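Z., the sequence and structure:
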Amino acid sequence: MKKLGVIILVVLAITLFYQLGGQQYLTPSFYQTLFAENPILTAGIFFCVYVAATAVSLPGAAALTLIGGAVFGLGWGLLLISFASSIGATLAFLITRLLLRDWVQSKFGQYLKTINQGMEKDGAFYLFTLRLIPVVPFFVINLVMGLMPISAWRFYWVSQLGMLAGTAVYVNAGAELGKLDTLSVSGLLSPTLIGSFVLLAIFPWIARASIRSVQRRRKQKAFTRPKTFTDNLIVVGAGAGGLVSSYIAAVTKAKVTLIEKHKMGGDCLNTGCVPSKALIHAARLAQDMREAGQVGIHTGDVNVDFPAVMESVHRSIQAVEPHDSVERYTGLGVNCIEGAATILDPWTVEVNGEKRTARNLIIAAGGRPRVPNIPGLEEVTYYTSDTLWNIKTLPKTLLVVGAGPIGCELAQSFRRFGSQVIMVDPAPQILGREDADVVEAVRQRFVQEGIQLKTKHSLKAVRAQGERSEALIEGEQGEQWIAFDAMLLAIGREANVTGYGLENLNIAIDDRGFIQVDEYLETSMPGVFAVGDVIGGYQFTHVSAHEAWFASVNALFGHLKRFKADYAVIPWATYTDPEVGRVGLNEETAKAQGIEYEVTRFEIEELDRAIVDQAASGFVKVLTVPGKDKILGATIVGIHGGELIAEFVLAMRHGLGLNKILGTIHAYPTLMEANKYAAGEWKRAHAPQRVLKWVEKYHQFRRT
């Protein structure tokens, strides 16, 4: 009944206001005329109107502020409006709290949990910052804060203080306008009036800078800031994120130091992308030789010299190594230091007994494979994606634990070299992030090649059993022991957040163990940024490099302009056979996010080049906005799917639809034509049938 009464009262007040001609109270002429006769009455009416308008969130508060300044001047205008706006805002706050808070918190409380905790912990400062920046509509703040766990009294006095600066700027502008007797050119161009509007325009930037300065000092108060710095930027970690960060800094003529304790190039060069793709290449050659008889080329039995294969893998690493070397980056202007870094404070890093300082730091410490706590693990031979490259002998039976992209890629490669491969994963399918039809295409190939898939199975324990080992796995049919010679653990990665002084800064770590960053890639410690695997998210080399641009630019130039990291169009590829390339949404993610979509599909078995290359399997699947050619996402399953997806990445990044892809000439015969034919399938499904019927009648007429 209270809620109903408040609703009726608010609606009645707004209705009466307009029915009784209340608009006159929102015009400067009314107050200027009345002020000459009775200033006190004018002030009272203005105060009440301002409170009422703010309480019911009527538009025009900024105009009323200018009017108040013009009528009452800067001093009295600021006094009236400051209290009227705070009282009105508090009434709006209370109305929203009474009507909606319980319902919103009960329905969306789990989603608001983080915001609620932040408000309870630091709500006053958060509200103050919102009030200080007038580009955030004050009426929106009033309504939203009514839903948050903050007391009415705290809301009032914080609003009173927070809105004071912005209110003063607006009142001052109104006061300067009020001094004009006529709108003459000389009056409009007076320095005081121009200055007041310049102040009005730049105040949001001044407020933001002030807030950032206060926040920075507040969080850094436990440390002593150096008077001068040896560098503009220090980067910890020389993986993809660290290399690109330091490169950008050097290109922009900043003095940058890059510190790496192990090997330049990080995981990607030494234990990740480069060696794994070299291994996959060798495995694919072996498979191609086995299948060459299909086109009349008979090679006999394929003999895999596994030690030679691994030597070739390491030669590939050595061939790429100069691209990420100390010599190259030193030549680019980066001060490279090999040694273990220890972060002492937000500006200081110690390495090899030397202390270096910089205005900003970037943490690019990467991650490492996750090793589960499994009984008996220390008794058996096991590898991770970091240690696999030391293997010398091809295992007769390889147990792969984890059926994500890394597990699937390496499982297929070892099977093609001749190992018996068993894959175990508790999930119901391999490649858990992919759509069912994508998974099925890869699964069929795995089964065809002889890989044993044990999904819905968990690894419970392992043990040494003579010269071999055994694993206890549990599935729907119970437990069983299976024999193996070597085991590959591919169950995900965890961040490197210890061992280099991160704890000295008290930087926030999320519940998954990754460094928390904001949308500018800045950590909870101002001036310290983080990129790559250490922050979780998309753990791809190209994403680390992408993040490095934002982190380095924000670190070096953030005091002038900051850029939000953009993850709108991120491609990824799984290098199995068939290869899987994807960008944007797939059906699973679209359903999970409640996004409506339309599917267009083209079967690669119909593509001429795929047919002659003996690779006529797979498909192109595109998700679009229903009825439109705007691309929401695309998935390509088939030969070179990771390469072919680039056209859709480009299209999505620059807002090009399927009509543009269809209208682009593609060389014949190429695999890239699959993208064009997919666009053609969409066009055919959306052909204007009514128009075509009229065109058909037109052609009939032309034949008579």
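The chain is about 50% helix and 15% strand. Confidence is low (pLDDT under 50) at residues 182-189.

Let me know what you think.
H.
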